UniProtKB/TrEMBL annotation:
Family of the protein in this entry: Belongs to the glycosyl hydrolase 24 family.
UniProt entry tagged with the keyword Transmembrane: no
Catalytic activity annotation: Hydrolysis of (1->4)-beta-linkages between N-acetylmuramic acid and N-acetyl-D-glucosamine residues in a peptidoglycan and between N-acetyl-D-glucosamine residues in chitodextrins
InterPro entries attached to this UniProt entry: Bacteriophage_GH24, Endolysin_autolysin, Endolysin_T4_type, Glyco_hydro_24, Lysozyme-like_dom_sf, Lysozyme_dom_sf
GO molecular function: lysozyme activity
SUPFAM superfamilies cross-referenced by the UniProt entry: Lysozyme-like
One Pfam family here: Phage_lysozyme
Protein name per UniProt: Lysozyme
Enzyme Commission (EC) number: 3.2.1.17
Record keywords, A-Z: Antimicrobial, Bacteriolytic enzyme, Glycosidase, Host cytoplasm, Hydrolase
Organism: Paraburkholderia terricola
Length: 148
């Protein structure tokens, strides 16, 4: 596919930054995993013994995004817009490519039904089986960007 987006655009990065928030020191995320920066999950071999600078947090985000972008490009089999790519990147950054791979959202998208795919963002607003306000807002924002 020519002219297919392969990198997260400014709207996608802004959306991810908004919902992930910036924490320059290590913290435990909602499920107890060590995290830093804009939602970077700290890997066992990584050590963050001092606070990050904002520039370091942005560089870490770009590195994390690149891996997710490569995974997303393998999953999407139809032409999409930059806004659709960015919305999907926010989803993948938050939930992982595996969740997208097995989702009805991706099935609808690859079947050529982007409107039905957009509605599927709203299904992914639960943690522990219960809807969370923050996830609901994030999924609504992703859907809105996807449809723009």
């Amino acid at each position: 596919m020519t002219d297919q987006p392969t990198r997260t655009g400014a709207q996608g990065i802004d959306l991810i930054k908004h919902f992930e928030g910036l924490r320059l020191q290590r913290y435990l995320d909602a499920v107890g995993k060590p995290t830093i920066g804009y939602g970077h999950l700290i890997l066992p071999h990584e050590h963050f013994d001092r606070p990050l600078s904002e520039a370091e947090a942005q560089a870490l985000l770009r590195r994390d995004l690149r891996g997710a972008e490569l995974q997303l490009c393998k999953l999407v089999r139809v032409p999409i817009t930059q806004q659709q790519f960015d919305a999907l990147m926010s989803f993948v950054f938050n939930l992982g490519a595996g969740r997208l791979r097995s989702s009805t959202l991706l099935r609808y998208l690859n079947a050529g039904s982007p409107a039905h795919a957009a509605d599927q963002f709203l299904v992914w607003n639960k943690a522990g089986g219960k809807p969370l306000a923050g996830l609901t807002r994030r999924r609504q924002a992703e859907r809105k960007l996807f449809l723009s």
